[in-house]
Amino acid sequence: MEELCERISDNDRVVRDTSYQFFLFLGCKEDNRGPFISMMMAYIFNAMTHLAVDVRLMAFTFFNLVVQHYPPSFSLYAEKILQNYEDILQKNQFYLKDNGKLKNALAGLVSCLTLLPCNTRKVVSSFEENLARKRVLHVFEPDLPKDVARF
Protein backbone atom coordinates (compact mmCIF):
# COMPACT_ATOMS: atom_id res chain seq x y z
CA MET A 1 0.00 0.00 0.00
CA GLU A 2 2.87 2.37 0.78
CA GLU A 3 4.28 1.93 -2.73
CA LEU A 4 0.91 2.89 -4.15
CA CYS A 5 0.89 6.02 -1.97
CA GLU A 6 4.31 6.95 -3.34
CA ARG A 7 2.71 7.24 -6.79
CA ILE A 8 0.72 10.28 -5.61
CA SER A 9 3.69 12.53 -6.37
CA ASP A 10 4.97 10.64 -9.42
CA ASN A 11 6.15 12.87 -12.26
CA ASP A 12 4.14 10.90 -14.83
CA ARG A 13 0.53 12.06 -15.05
CA VAL A 14 -0.68 8.65 -16.26
CA VAL A 15 0.83 6.98 -13.19
CA ARG A 16 -0.87 9.50 -10.87
CA ASP A 17 -4.21 9.10 -12.64
CA THR A 18 -3.98 5.31 -12.54
CA SER A 19 -3.08 5.23 -8.86
CA TYR A 20 -6.00 7.57 -8.21
CA GLN A 21 -8.30 4.95 -9.76
CA PHE A 22 -6.98 2.32 -7.33
CA PHE A 23 -7.83 4.29 -4.22
CA LEU A 24 -11.23 2.95 -3.35
CA PHE A 25 -11.99 3.26 0.32
CA LEU A 26 -15.24 1.36 0.18
CA GLY A 27 -13.47 -1.95 0.82
CA CYS A 28 -11.37 -0.54 3.64
CA LYS A 29 -12.72 -1.51 7.07
CA GLU A 30 -13.36 1.26 9.60
CA ASP A 31 -10.71 -0.14 11.96
CA ASN A 32 -7.99 0.07 9.30
CA ARG A 33 -8.85 3.52 7.97
CA GLY A 34 -7.02 5.59 10.59
CA PRO A 35 -3.47 4.28 9.96
CA PHE A 36 -4.09 4.09 6.22
CA ILE A 37 -5.38 7.68 6.06
CA SER A 38 -2.47 9.06 8.10
CA MET A 39 0.05 7.27 5.85
CA MET A 40 -1.71 8.51 2.74
CA MET A 41 -1.88 12.07 4.07
CA ALA A 42 1.90 12.12 4.49
CA TYR A 43 2.26 11.39 0.78
CA ILE A 44 -0.47 13.86 -0.16
CA PHE A 45 1.26 16.64 1.80
CA ASN A 46 4.53 15.74 0.10
CA ALA A 47 2.84 16.02 -3.30
CA MET A 48 1.24 19.35 -2.32
CA THR A 49 4.72 20.84 -1.96
CA HIS A 50 6.10 19.33 -5.18
CA LEU A 51 7.75 21.69 -7.66
CA ALA A 52 5.54 20.59 -10.54
CA VAL A 53 2.20 22.39 -10.44
CA ASP A 54 0.49 19.43 -12.08
CA VAL A 55 1.58 17.16 -9.22
CA ARG A 56 0.44 19.70 -6.64
CA LEU A 57 -3.01 20.04 -8.18
CA MET A 58 -3.39 16.26 -8.40
CA ALA A 59 -2.56 16.06 -4.68
CA PHE A 60 -5.66 18.15 -3.98
CA THR A 61 -7.68 15.70 -6.06
CA PHE A 62 -6.35 12.84 -3.94
CA PHE A 63 -7.20 14.76 -0.80
CA ASN A 64 -10.72 15.40 -2.07
CA LEU A 65 -11.08 11.64 -2.55
CA VAL A 66 -9.97 11.07 1.04
CA VAL A 67 -12.47 13.64 2.34
CA GLN A 68 -15.31 12.14 0.31
CA HIS A 69 -14.80 8.73 1.91
CA TYR A 70 -13.51 9.83 5.31
CA PRO A 71 -14.84 13.35 6.16
CA PRO A 72 -13.15 13.58 9.60
CA SER A 73 -9.79 13.69 7.81
CA PHE A 74 -10.35 17.35 6.94
CA SER A 75 -10.73 18.42 10.54
CA LEU A 76 -7.61 16.44 11.47
CA TYR A 77 -5.47 18.17 8.85
CA ALA A 78 -7.43 21.40 8.25
CA GLU A 79 -4.67 23.88 9.08
CA LYS A 80 -2.09 22.20 6.86
CA ILE A 81 -4.56 21.74 4.01
CA LEU A 82 -5.72 25.35 4.10
CA GLN A 83 -2.09 26.51 4.08
CA ASN A 84 -1.48 24.47 0.94
CA TYR A 85 -4.59 25.87 -0.73
CA GLU A 86 -3.45 29.36 0.18
CA ASP A 87 0.01 28.66 -1.18
CA ILE A 88 -1.19 27.39 -4.54
CA LEU A 89 -3.52 30.36 -4.93
CA GLN A 90 -1.00 33.00 -3.83
CA LYS A 91 1.81 31.82 -6.05
CA ASN A 92 -0.49 31.76 -9.05
CA GLN A 93 1.79 29.18 -10.70
CA PHE A 94 -0.80 27.58 -12.91
CA TYR A 95 -1.18 28.13 -16.60
CA LEU A 96 -4.27 28.27 -18.76
CA LYS A 97 -4.05 24.53 -19.47
CA ASP A 98 -4.29 23.80 -15.72
CA ASN A 99 -7.51 25.76 -15.16
CA GLY A 100 -9.64 22.61 -15.19
CA LYS A 101 -7.41 21.02 -12.57
CA LEU A 102 -7.47 24.21 -10.53
CA LYS A 103 -11.27 24.16 -10.66
CA ASN A 104 -11.20 20.57 -9.37
CA ALA A 105 -8.88 21.60 -6.55
CA LEU A 106 -11.12 24.53 -5.65
CA ALA A 107 -14.18 22.27 -5.77
CA GLY A 108 -12.37 20.13 -3.21
CA LEU A 109 -11.81 23.23 -1.09
CA VAL A 110 -15.50 24.08 -1.25
CA SER A 111 -16.46 20.58 -0.15
CA CYS A 112 -13.95 20.81 2.71
CA LEU A 113 -15.29 24.16 3.85
CA THR A 114 -18.82 22.78 3.95
CA LEU A 115 -17.57 20.28 6.54
CA LEU A 116 -16.56 23.04 8.93
CA PRO A 117 -18.93 23.50 11.85
CA CYS A 118 -21.10 26.55 11.52
CA ASN A 119 -21.83 28.40 14.75
CA THR A 120 -24.47 30.79 13.41
CA ARG A 121 -26.64 29.93 16.40
CA LYS A 122 -23.98 31.38 18.67
CA VAL A 123 -23.70 34.50 16.54
CA VAL A 124 -27.47 34.96 16.36
CA SER A 125 -27.94 34.38 20.08
CA SER A 126 -25.21 36.87 21.01
CA PHE A 127 -26.80 39.40 18.63
CA GLU A 128 -30.18 38.81 20.25
CA GLU A 129 -28.66 39.20 23.72
CA ASN A 130 -27.11 42.53 22.70
CA LEU A 131 -30.40 43.68 21.26
CA ALA A 132 -32.26 42.69 24.44
CA ARG A 133 -29.75 44.63 26.57
CA LYS A 134 -30.22 47.72 24.42
CA ARG A 135 -33.99 47.47 24.73
CA VAL A 136 -33.66 47.27 28.49
CA LEU A 137 -31.55 50.43 28.45
CA HIS A 138 -34.14 52.30 26.42
CA VAL A 139 -37.01 51.15 28.60
CA PHE A 140 -35.26 52.06 31.84
CA GLU A 141 -36.76 55.06 33.57
CA PRO A 142 -35.41 56.30 36.87
CA ASP A 143 -37.60 56.14 39.96
CA LEU A 144 -36.94 59.83 40.59
CA PRO A 145 -39.82 62.26 40.40
CA LYS A 146 -40.17 64.08 37.13
CA ASP A 147 -40.84 67.43 38.75
CA VAL A 148 -37.76 69.19 39.88
CA ALA A 149 -37.99 70.71 43.35
CA ARG A 150 -36.96 74.35 43.31
CA PHE A 151 -35.44 76.01 46.34
UniProtKB/TrEMBL annotation:
Belongs to the IPI1/TEX10 family. It comes from Vitis rotundifolia (Muscadine grape). Residues 35-102 form the Pre-rRNA-processing protein Ipi1 N-terminal domain. PROSITE patterns: PROKAR_LIPOPROTEIN (PS51257). This is Pre-rRNA-processing protein Ipi1 N-terminal domain-containing protein. Pfam families: Ipi1_N. It is found in: Nucleus. Keywords: Nucleus. PANTHER family: REGULATOR OF MICROTUBULE DYNAMICS PROTEIN (PTHR16056), TESTIS-EXPRESSED PROTEIN 10 (PTHR16056:SF2). InterPro entries: ARM-like (IPR011989), ARM-type_fold (IPR016024), Ipi1_N (IPR024679). One of its GO terms (cellular component) is nucleus. The keyword Lipoprotein does not apply.
